[in-house]
Amino acid sequence: MRVRIPPPLLALAAAVLMWWLDRKIPVVRMVVAPWNRMGWVFVGVGFGVDAVSILSFLRAKTTVNPIRVERTTRLVVTGFYRFSRNPMYLGLLLVLCGWAVLLGSLMPFVVVLAVERLLVVLQIRREEAALAAKFGDEYIEYTRRVRRWVGSVGKS
User: Fold this and answer.
1) How many other CB atoms are found less than 10 A from the CB of residue 103?
2) Residue 131: which H helix or E strand, with range?
């Protein structure tokens, strides 16, 4: 599949859809005030993870552009990349989870699950193939050590 939607744009569209669904189809109010304000913690952590992950790419002097993964010059395996092969996408999902908590109803959480699948299908698999082709055994070994989302020892 050659669809190339910048992940931040996908996340922004998802956030708007989550807001709309919460207003139009508020199925099951799961998180009520004042507890919904805990969503700000997820939003803050998500943006923090993204910022630190971007800094790792800048320090390595390689592209941070997920649409142009073939321009990658170095495999980044430090910082959050020791724990997740996709911390920038994890950060986006944390921001969306926080937004879902702030909104409080069930439908926004369904959108977060859909975005996770879309990221894997439209972006991550393409990136993984490009990185395996470019970095070969080095990347394959990295995938054996670090999970797609969080953790170590094996693939997920």
Assistant:
1) 24
2) helix 125-135
Residue 112 pLDDT greater than 80, yes or no: yes
Tens digit of pLDDT for each residue in 120-142?
A: 998 999 999 999 999 999 999 99
Q: Count the neighbouring beta carbons within 10 Å of the beta carbon of residue 116.
A: 17
Cβ-contact 113, 104 below 8 angstroms = no
What would the mean pLDDT of 79-107 be, rounded to a whole number?
96
The one-letter amino acid code at 128 reads E
CA 59/CA 151 separation, integer angstroms: 23
DSSP code, position 105: B
The predicted model gives 36-41 an average pLDDT of 96
**152: three-class secondary structure by DSSP:** strand
Taking each continuous run of H as one helix and of E as one strand, the counts in the chain are 6, 0
Tokens found for residue 86: 């996709």
Which two tokens mark 113? 């699950």
State how far the Cα of 28 lies from the Cα of 49, in Å rounded to an integer.
30
The pTM for the full model equals 0.90
d(CA 125, CA 29): 34
Q: Which sequence spans correspond to the domains of the chain?
A: 7-23+35-63+75-145
Q: How many residues comprise the chain?
A: 156
